[in-house]
Target: Exosome complex component Rrp41
Amino acid sequence: MSDKPEKLITDDGLRLDGRRADEIRPMKIEVGVLSRADGSCYLEWGKNKILVGVFGPREAHPRRSQRADNAVIRYRYNMASFSVEDRARPGPSRRSIEISKVSREAFEPVIMTELFPKTAIDIFVEVLQADAGTRTAAINASSIALADAGIPMKGLITSCAFGKVDGQIVLDLNKEEDNYGEADFPVAMTQDGDITLLQMDGHLTPEEIKKGLELVKKGCKEILEIQRAVLRKKFETPVEEPEEETEEAEIEAVEAEPSLEYAPEAAVVEEIIEEAGEFEEELSQETVEACAVDEEASECEKLEEIIKEAEAEVIEAEAIEEVIETEIEEEAEEEALEAETEFEAAFEASYEEFAESVVTGKLCPEKTVSEKAELEPEIEEFAEEKPEIEEKPEIEEKPEIEEKPEIEAKPEIEEKPEIEEEAGIEKAASEEAFESKPEIEPEAESREKAVEAEEVPVEEECKGPWKVVKDPSESGSRGENYE
Model:
């Protein structure tokens, strides 16, 4: 350790490092120095060098340390063994445990732990080089690291210390002032001025404490501006860049518009007319304003020429549109005429083929059309008479005839030849009736024969002394037996 100097404050009111009583040491801050941490910060404050890493919110282990309603803040302050002149013992000590506790309590009022229940937010502070005021430097660095990790907070925390040196209240003690001074008073507060950390080492009167707190507020405001500037530099995007990007995007969009060669002609013409009309309105307003503001005739003439050119473009576009419409109509008429001619040609060809087939007799090779017309009513009558032949319910009533037991007892059944002669006469009459009908086309005859073969039942041989007639209307009695 260095020997105690004779005076810590000179007669001119300057301190050993050349500062005034109300000045802080120079501060340097870097954000995002650790790639594996969620948020990190490296801070140099005078000769102090602090490295902070923030991890979380993440699941808290062991689980007994979890809280159901909010997150757990875990703050670990550690001084490297090479951070001081005399080698420090590695690992936690009573001093590091005490500083970890008070620093954690300084952040609890601003971190929104209720948003992350059953989780843990870990803050690791490593002091690489110590030069008095390490706890206040660690709090300032931790505040920036938490913001870099994106953890919701009500505001940034700033910390600074004041002390008593040679009977005077000074701000931000250095190593010699801390070692040989009369008192040390570290303070941490929010950006709204609420105090979250307050410690004292030494003896101070109430008036000295009030004076020292006024100096601390001034120092904390300066530190807060430095913190905001560092975070703004990393996270705030410049205002001019988006405008340049939008202009480039507009230029690309204009270049990417389809040309007249590839777009449909009608749509392109309509777009040209609309754009020309809008451009004409804009130019007319611009000309009025320009002529009213600027009386120079040359500018007005140029604007009038531009308007005339726009009008000429509109007229050309309208003419192109008319030409396109006429071409479309002509094409439609030509297509309609071609379709009509094709239809007429096909109709004539089909009509000629039909006439030839009629003349040559290919349509009806066996009968002419006139003969067909004569036979149609007779065919219809014959078709109407068919249901009478099909409906023969009376023939199935044979069981009534079988119920006559008296017939078998009569011995005079030998006179059957008369019955057979009458049946033969009736059959001959029915055959003559059928033969007397006019001749029908071969196709109709074949169909009628097939129907008769299906519908007319086969006559069974009579095994009794009665007569079975095909049609009950042809004879006066059904199954009568003759004696």
In short: DSSP finds twelve helices and ten strands in the chain. The CA atoms of residues 173 and 463 lie 149 Å apart. Residues 297-360 form the longest helix (64 residues).
